[in-house]
Amino acid sequence: MAPGDPILGLTEAYLADPRLQKVNLGVGIYVDEQGQIPLLRAVREVEQALAAQAKPRGYLPIDGLPAYDTLTQHLLFGEDSPLLEAGRVATAQTIGGSGALRVGADLLKKVLPNARIAISSPSWENHRVVFGNAGFEVVDYRYYDAATHGLDFAGMLEDLGKLEPGTVVLLHACCHNPTGVDLDAQQWQQVVELIKARDLLPFVDIAYQGFDEGIDADATAIRLFAASGIEAFLIASSYSKSFSLYGERVGALSIVGADREEAARLRAKIKQTIRANYSSPSTHGGALVAGVLGSPELRAMWEAELAGMRERIHAMRAGLVEKLAAHGAPQFAFIQQQAGMFSYSGLSRAQVDRLREEYGIYALGTGRICVAALNRSNLDYVAEAVAAVSR
Ligand code: LMR
Fold first, then answer.
1. Cα 196 to ligand 1 centroid, rounded to whole Å
2. Is the CB of residue 191 less than 8 Å from the CB of residue 143?
């Protein structure tokens, strides 16, 4: 029997829980004030137009919808990117961000069979699994400082500085999963310089673009790598969260090469890898994203909806901290400093177990909670329960 997945397995347990009062703070899914996963208006507009056309469903190209790939590049690198101008980026639509990671990992394993990969300690549970299954030795670099609930930046620089040249370094562009602890622009600049000096290969995972400060600010790491003169890096991106299209599996793998010719070779390699994995991506989700991003009007509508989600998360962070303090637990003020959907709450496994058993509140065993699953109806209940188990 294989063990259950630490994140998706928890949702299974949550769904099977017969209690009426229960809250799923496990999986990273944004829900609205009504506790529902939103269907964005901009997405619905495109969906209705697609349904009216009722087009046949042929296979997409191996690397997905060309418009989707181009629009994704602009979102990641910015509208006036010299890198895009120079044709140095190969992008392929993938089966979610996870698909992008796996395709990137398989491709890297072929071209750099002896490289190791370094991930943050801690990182998204599935990073270790995806790269491990692709045959990589996975090592950790220091990242989270449990004492301050913040970043161990000195430890991070020290560990990155000791990696062998050619090591792949996985970095979270924003809204670090699971901690919610991010680098600021100045710290990113230092990391970029170190990576360049040590000849490491960055693999940036950006699954929450727009969930902290905004589309461009959240892509700071990518923009700095692009401007750094580093010849090659990879990006796994996802629209699951930013478009609220979780089940459509809409992601992309982008690889930057030294020049247009290398990008063409990278595109061929990406396509070869995808063909051997799942052949080609699916049509519907890609068409939704491309339809929104390709229309100035719908794009503006989407940006406003994305801002609404971001602001609600900020409000929930503030609300949680306030209510925890009101329930006698002021030690959680750091939650307001963290960014994105997640917070490493500092709760122990035993406290998390109590939350689940006594209150029907599901959090990861590591203490990660999804702040985006809070709303005005469950906030007080959660705060009271967290305060109770922390006493
Ligand atoms: C999470 O971390 O909860 C999300 O990225 C969903 C997943 O696939 O794990």
1. 30
2. no
Domain membership of residue 146 (yes or no) is: yes
Q: Which residue among 5, 7, 37 is best mutated to probe the pocket of ligand 1, counting the most ligand atoms within 8 A of its Cβ?
A: 7
CA distance 232 to 204: 12
Residue 305 belongs to domain spanning = 6-40+299-390
Beta bridge partners of 16: none
Residue 235 tokens read as 């990006």
Pocket test for ligand 1, best of 8, 98, 126, 208 (most atoms within 8 A of CB): 126
Ligand 1 binding site (Cβ under 6 Å of any ligand atom): 7, 27-28, 124, 126, 177
- Which pTM does this prediction carry? 0.96
Is residue 117 within 8 A of residue 166, CB to CB? The reply is no
Kindly give the number of the ligand 1 atom that is closest to the alpha carbon of 370: 3
What is the token pair recorded at 168? 């792949």
> Which pLDDT belongs to residue 3?
86
Query: What is the ipTM metric for this complex?
Result: 0.94
Between CA 388 and CA 391 the distance in angstroms is 6
Give one DSSP letter per residue of 76-137, joined into a string.
Answer: HH-TT-HHHHTT-EEEEEEEHHHHHHHHHHHHHHHH-TT--EEEEES--HHHHHHHHHTT--
pLDDT for 67: 98
Binned at pLDDT 50, 70 and 90, residue 178 comes out as very high
Percentage of the chain exceeding pLDDT 70: 100
Q: Give yes or no: residues 241 and 262 share one domain.
A: yes
Domains in the chain: how many in total?
2
**pLDDT-based confidence at residue 4 (cuts at 50, 70, 90):** confident
Q: What residue's CA is closest to ligand 1, atom 9?
A: 7
CA distance 241 to 208: 6
Catalytic residues: 124, 205, 241
Same domain, 323 and 275: no
- Looking from the CA of 234 toward its CB, the CA atoms found within 13 Å total 27
CA distance 271 to 255: 12
Contact 358, 385 (CB under 8 A): yes
